[in-house]
Amino acid sequence: MSSVPVTTWYLEQTSPADLLPAAAPEGDVRIVRAEVPSPEFNRFLYTAVGGDIRWTDRLDWPYTRWQELLEKPGVETWVAYDRGTPAGFIELEAQDDGAVEILYFGLLPAFRGRGIGGHLLARGTARAWDLAERWPGLAPTKRVWVHTCDKDGEFAMANYQRRGFTLYDTRVELEPDAPNPGPWPRAYPA
After folding, report:
1. Is residue 181 part of a domain?
2. Does the residue 135 lie in any domain?
3. What is the C-alpha radius of gyration for the chain, rounded to an integer number of angstroms?
4. How many domains does the chain have?
5. Contact criterion met (CB below 8 Å) for 138 and 99
6. Quick check: is 166 in a domain?
7. For residue 164, which of 15, 20, 89, 185 is within the disulfide window of CB 3.0 to 4.6 Å?
């Protein structure tokens, strides 16, 4: 299999004051925390959002690994719904040093370009800043960070920067040149 260079950018906020708001999208868009750990639901979100942008690192995870992640204190999934339909998600993970990583963030293809992403990112980042309030025993958030790469959606980097994230590192690595997996096998034509 051939390899391709992939550029990954690392961005952060170091204060809640760094967070810049986004306009609320039109229509009935709600953002709700998925409070019951559900490997099936999180895997659905992961494959539905990442299928066309080559999210592959979790595709072979067994049920137990999903369950372990979702039951970890300080891991939260916030879901955007458009008129009751899941439109996207943001997954947060508290780390030992007071940092919160945005593990995954994105929208299903049909919901992109409508202002939902900026709104979800702003609300999810705000939830990263107040995460310790919902998880007794966790250190208060001192930093929120995320990484994105040139395989992600074309507006990902600009969205992070519009929400107040600043770049602190860039890396280029070779990765296998794999086809988009789709939300299920062979979902996209070859």
Report:
1. no
2. yes
3. 16
4. 1
5. no
6. yes
7. 20
Quote the CA–CA distance of 77 and 72 in Å, as a whole number: 12
* CA 177 – CA 181 distance, rounded (Å): 12
Give pLDDT tens digits for 134-153: 999 999 999 999 999 988 87
Q: What CATH number should be reported for the domain holding residue 155?
A: 3.40.630.30
Query: No. of H helices and E strands in the chain?
Result: 5, 7
DSSP structure class, residue 188 = S
What is the rounded distance in angstroms from the CA atom of residue 37 to the CA atom of residue 77?
A: 9
Global pTM? 0.94
What's the CA dihedral at 136, 43, 155, 169 to 10 degrees?
Answer: 60
Report residue 64 as tokens: 């137990």
Residue 114 in domain: yes
Q: For residues 98 and 142, what is the distance between their CA atoms, to the nearest angstrom?
A: 5
